Amino acid sequence: MQHSSREFLELVSKYCSNQLTYYTYNKQTLRVSDKYRRGRVTALQYIEELTFFYFRKEKYLKEQFIRDLRAQLSTIAYLDDNDYRAGIDDAITHVISEIEAQ
Fold it and tell me: What is this structure's pTM?
């Protein structure tokens, strides 16, 4: 079963959080060099920051999608005023209305 983007990010974030705790607070019981442990912690911190970035990006996905659709509407303004243009306009406007209604 494939996960949604949000579920995927949550899984990665949880894994990194668990690993960070393990490598940060088990200095004496780990059988790895201090440099390896620091490298591992650095990489896990980077991955956690990256997941946070994508969480934020996902949060604003709906707004960005609507902005892109509105930009497309302004692009079709240069087409001749005919049924083709009206069909594009109606479809995009309808989709925007449906998204905003949710």
Answer: 0.68
Q: Is residue 14 located within the same domain as residue 46?
A: yes
Q: What is the pLDDT of residues 9-34, one digit of tens each?
A: 999 999 999 999 999 888 888 888 98
Name every residue whose Cβ is closer than 8 Å to that of residue 101 and which is 6 or more positions away in sequence.
Answer: none
Query: What is the domain range of residue 75?
Result: 62-101
Are 10 and 52 contained in the same domain? Answer: yes
List pLDDT tens digits, range 59-78.
888 899 999 999 999 998 88
